[in-house]
């Protein structure tokens, strides 16, 4: 019997209808003779709302108390899902970070996992239960609740998959997978079938909200294949693993400062055709370069002017 880990993001859990859709997906995996661990984020914009509420009380909320408050969002998701699954006739148990034994360092709001005690997880799984974990949270050695930073549920899921030697780790959201650019801003983007850990880490590191950067590092360290999928259809996703294609561009990402573009793809800096396309476009558009950095997996260009959505669209179309 294989162990699999499923993670569902907040956009997959926004209402009761979506909760039922997620429950059906969980049940399908469970009925396929798998031991199933599910990691859930907070529903919708719950975390943002809790932060706003805290800041109405204090401009600088105490970090310990803020972590305790924000962890409530994932607790609500996990308990709701467990209630739903049990009502549908499937044995499920919700567990919080401290109940699982996710031990972290003391860095509130950006804690790092130091150890996971698998006793409770194994016990519940061996009893045939679906384990529903509240993502994004742990506990430090002093018994205080900690959180792993925004997107930290991804890190929870991959860490659990690594410690349980899970066969699969699926990350579900409202998009099918990883694209050549942000599909919400750029037209005609292409979904990638495969991408390497290193390439994915560079994409995440440049600010693309696909996966928590830290989770990719953990996946690479423990060789945990991740497949990103959409909650709302059954299309193939993107597999993130240790395999890579050389000299191909995987994605173009504009950093949050709006004047930095990163072109990501293992070995693309050695491909003369790609380099010619990049620099011919820059010359044609009369773009002024402030600095450029080229390494094995990424070409990063800082421009002297802001790169608009329209210009980014043109750049994408030239490269892809």
The fold-level CATH name of the largest domain is: Carbamate kinase
Number of strands: 16
Provide the spatial order of strands within the biggest beta sheet: 3-6-2-1-9-11-12-10
What structural class do you assign from the helix and strand content? alpha/beta
- Please write the CATH class name of the largest domain: Alpha Beta
- Summed up, the domain count is 2
Kindly, what is the distance between the CA atoms of the first and last residues, rounded to a whole number of angstroms? 42 Å
Task: Report the major sheet.
Answer: 8 strands, mixed
Give me the CATH architecture of the largest domain, please: 3-Layer(aba) Sandwich
Instruction: Tell me the Rg in angstroms.
Output: 21 Å
Q: Which percent bin holds the helix content?
A: 25-40%
Return the string of H and E elements.
EHEHHEHEEHEEEHEEHHEEEEHEEH
Number of helices: 10
Q: Calculate the mean pLDDT score and round it.
A: 94
């Amino acid at each position: 019997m294989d162990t699999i880990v499923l993670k569902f993001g907040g956009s997959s859990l926004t209402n009761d209808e979506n909760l039922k859709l997620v429950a059906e997906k969980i049940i399908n995996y469970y009925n396929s003779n798998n031991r199933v661990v599910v990691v859930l984020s907070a529903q919708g914009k719950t975390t943002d709302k809790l932060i706003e509420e805290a800041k109405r009380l204090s401009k600088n909320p105490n970090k310990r108390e803020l972590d305790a408050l924000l962890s409530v969002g994932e607790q609500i998701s996990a308990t709701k899902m467990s209630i739903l699954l049990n009502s549908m006739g499937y044995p499920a148990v919700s567990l919080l970070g401290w109940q699982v034994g996710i031990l972290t360092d003391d860095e509130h709001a950006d804690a790092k996992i130091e150890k996971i005690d698998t006793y409770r997880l194994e016990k519940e799984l061996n009893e045939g239960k679906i384990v529903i974990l509240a993502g994004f949270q742990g506990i430090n050695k002093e018994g205080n609740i900690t959180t792993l930073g925004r997107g930290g549920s991804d890190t929870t899921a991959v860490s659990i998959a690594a410690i349980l030697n899970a066969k699969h780790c699926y990350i579900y959201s409202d998009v099918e997978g990883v694209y050549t650019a942000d599909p919400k801003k750029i037209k005609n983007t292409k979904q990638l079938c495969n991408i390497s850990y290193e390439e994915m880490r560079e994409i995440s590191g440049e600010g693309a909200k696909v996966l928590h950067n830290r989770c990719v590092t953990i996946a690479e360290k423990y060789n945990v294949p991740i497949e990103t999928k959409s909650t709302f259809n059954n299309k193939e996703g993107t597999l993130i693993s240790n395999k890579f294609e050389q000299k191909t561009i995987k994605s173009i990402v504009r950093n949050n400062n709006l004047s930095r573009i990163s072109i990501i793809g293992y070995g693309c800096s050695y491909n003369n055709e790609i380099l010619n396309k990049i620099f011919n476009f820059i010359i044609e558009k009369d773009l002024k370069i402030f600095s450029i950095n080229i390494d094995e997996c990424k070409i990063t260009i800082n421009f002297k002017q802001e790169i608009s959505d329209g210009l980014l669209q043109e750049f994408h179309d030239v490269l892809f």
